[in-house]
Amino acid sequence: MLETGAILRIRYVVCTEGPDRVRELIAIGASFDHGEDGNLHLVREGGHSHRRIFHAADMTEKEIESALLKSVVNKTNIFVFEHHFAIDILTCQDGSDITCVGIDTLNTETLEVVRFLSKVTWLASGGAGHIYPKTTNSLVATGDGIAMAHRPQAVISNME
Ligand SMILES: Cc1cc2nc3c(=O)[nH]c(=O)nc-3n(C[C@H](O)[C@H](O)[C@H](O)COP(=O)(O)OP(=O)(O)OC[C@H]3O[C@@H](n4cnc5c(N)ncnc54)[C@H](O)[C@@H]3O)c2cc1C
Predict the structure, then answer these.
(1) Average model confidence (pLDDT) for the chain?
(2) Does the N terminus or the C terminus of the chain have fewer Cβ atoms within 10 A?
């Protein structure tokens, strides 16, 4: 469970840095709904006492993701490999030290295994909602990335 200090820190970051992140999203092309006064239209979500959620109709995530993808594709120092499904991370072991040195992927179109060697590997494979029989999480939330990290003994925390 997150400690109270960590929760307060997250709230602090959201409140202080959130507006700048929204401005960045708008700057890269995301478009959100505006009210009649010309300002961003804010709504409430469950449990909120104030209107503080901006949105793009009811497709906000799609709008944000599309803007981010367009921005990434335009960057010359980022290479996007579509249809590459991560299978397992690659490790080197020196005594009790285990270092991640890359990742094996399956190109789901050619069915070839493609290996990526790297100094730094980030896993951003989402949550694990589908380990439960009932969930509203998207179908991709299978926890496979977390399992990949767990196999070579990465420390996994805050799973709840
Ligand atoms: C119904 C619902 C409503 C929500 N509403 C809101 C909301 O209004 N506001 C809000 O802030 N949050 C909301 N959330 C939460 C939010 O969607 C998640 O917290 C967020 O999407 C998590 O982002 P993520 O990048 O960690 O994972 P994800 O968005 O799940 O992204 C993980 C990605 O990794 C890919 N992937 C997984 N395994 C592999 C693999 N082995 N190889 C290659 N790729 C892989 C997946 O295909 C996916 O594209 C909602 C969630 C749900 C389920």
Answers:
(1) 93
(2) C
Question: Would residue 159 count as lying in a domain?
Answer: no
Do 59 and 65 form a contact (C-beta atoms < 8 A)?
A: no
Indicate the angle between helix axes 4-27 and 60-73, nearest 10 degrees.
70
Strand-pair partners of 34: 40
3-state secondary structure of 49: coil
Candidates 122, 86, 128; CA nearest to 103 is 86
Q: Which amino acid is at 19?
A: P
Ligand 1 pocket residue status of 135, Cβ below 6 Å:
no
pLDDT tens digit string along 54-67?
A: 999 999 999 999 99
Model-level pTM?
A: 0.83
Closest alpha carbon to 159 in 114, 131, 127, 123: 127
53 CA to centre of ligand 1 in angstroms: 18
> Dihedral angle at the C-alpha atoms of 10, 11, 15, 16, nearest 10 degrees?
-50
Residue 155 is assigned to a structural domain of this protein: no
Residue 34 gets which letter from DSSP? Answer: B
Answer whether residue 33 is part of any domain: yes
Q: Is 33 in the pocket of ligand 1 (CB under 6 A)?
A: no
